[in-house]
Every structure is written in structure tokens, then in C-alpha cells.
Automatic annotation (TrEMBL):
This is Beta-lactamase-like protein. GO terms for biological process: secondary metabolite biosynthetic process. Its cofactor is Zn(2+). CDD domains: LACTB2-like_MBL-fold (cd07722).
Amino acid sequence: MSTPQLPALPEVTRLSPSCIRILAGNPGRFTLQGTNTYLLGSGSSRLLIDTGEGRPSWISALHRVLQDEGASLAATLITHWHHDHTGGIVDVLKAWPGTAVYKHGGAVGDGDTALGEGVQEMRDGQRFVVDGASLAAVHTPGHTTDHVVLVWEEAGAVFTGDNVLGHGTSVFGDLGAYVDSLERMRGLFGSGTAAGGQDGVGGSAFPGHGPVVTDGVGKIAEYIQHRAQREEQVVQTLRAENSAAAAAAAAQGTTTAVGSEDGRKTWTVMELVRSIYRNVPESLHPAAAGGVVQILQKLAREGKAVLEGDGERWRLAGAGRSVL
């Protein structure tokens, strides 16, 4: 939840003989150094992954790189509908009319109707091939419902979109789907057709934001563990019935708690946030609340947590009821 100073990344970086990263020129709190877009291939036709949010500096850099490479675009592949990944589609189509653009769900989905016509459906398992790069789309919802990752088959590497980042952790719209997708992604690395991975990037994660992660499987394991720890913190906090229980939990480094007036173990979302994120600046608590809500909804679907009648307070399922 902290926002440390991030190391600078160049606008254009050749990451391997067949992969060039072009930053979208939109650094920020949620975009880190900016949205990563990637140009794949080694011949006269290349694949583009994501388009940034439509900054003039990005389309100029893309023009310059393609001119230097003596190449044009074969297709543009979109990892998900968020504007910082789709905003440059219009610029791409103006510069290279007729370029095929693919996105899971096509042009309409999750509110991205502004993409207009001409965005084609990207199917789960669909392959895109140019000289030097073969990519396979894998539907991995959670961050968004339409999210895909792209497996670089020759290299045994994965373009992870926003499911895995180069710094910190990602946000998600559906925690259960997100964790399931992370588990699926674990098996996508290191399966390159070239021994050890083409271009020396086998096992790497190429994220939608931040630097390349050389140990993609290890990073995903960290993400899964982090999510499990957050879920356990919520469960332990819900379990804390009174100040004595809260003090004991706090002594173990897990929670602090606020007891309800009638002694039942019920909590509002913001009470949970203030407890679990007590060492995080309060300005970041609203952002943390979204993740806590997702955990509570996941627990509710699993029958482990219940939303009380007023619709604002949560408790563990079967907990806190008087037997008298």
C-alpha cells in the first residue's frame, strides 16, 4: 500500500532481440512508471501488446521504433479494457489503417464501448504468430472480467497484463477469480519450445506496469501467499470479540479490534481496514477498503462470513450468536 520512489525506466528498451518495451508516457500512482506496451517479433511484421492511454509521446515513440526496425504492425493485442491499455487504439488505427485489434470480449465489455468498431474477439487459446514470436492468449479474469495474459511460446515467458506487476501487488474486481487465474498462470511459464527459453528470458513475467520480473513463478507464489495472508488477517480480525481478544491478536502481530455493543463479533469494512492497515497512512485506507470488501465477499460465497441485517456489519458465519 505504500508508494515508494520507483526506479526510472527508459521510454524505449530492447528487452531481448525479439521484444521492445515502449512506455506509454503516463506515470502515476496506479500506473507506476507508466503503462508498458510491447513490440514483439524480429521480421517486417510485429505484434503490439496494449496501446497505453493515447499520449502523443507514445504514438511518436512507436512510429520511431517501427521505422528504425523497418517493420509494421501485424496485429494489436489488448490485455484488458482499462483505458490506460486501450486509449491508444484510435491512434494505432489512424497510423496503420486496417491493423487488426484483438481483445477478449471484443469491442464491448466492462464499459469499453468507446473503443468503437473493428476490435475483434480474442478467443481463449488463440495464437498470434510473426517471425520471432508466437503468442497464445489465456483468459485470466479477476483484475477485470476480460483480462488475458499472453504466453510467448518460444521463450516460455508470459506477458501478464495487470495480473502481475513489476512493483507491488495488483487490484482486482473478483478475488476468487483472480486467485484462480494466478494458479492457472503458474503453469504457463518455462514451457518454451527453445531449451532454456528463447532470447534468455525463459520464465520471465513481462508486466503491464513496472520492470520485467525474471522469476515469474516465484512472483506469482508471492502474490498467492500475500492474498492468503490478507484473507487470514480478515478472518482473525472478525474473530476478535472484545478488547482482550484484540490485544492478544495484536500481540501476535495480526489485528486490533473494536468490539460491538452487544458483544457480537461484527465489524464494518472501515473498522476492519483501520485494524488490518493500522500502520498504513489513513489516506490509503479507502483504496484498501476495496480489497477488504473483495475478501469479505469471497468468504461469504464460501459460507465463512455473513453480512448482518443492516447491511454494514460483518461477522464470521455461526459466530457471535447468544445461545440464551
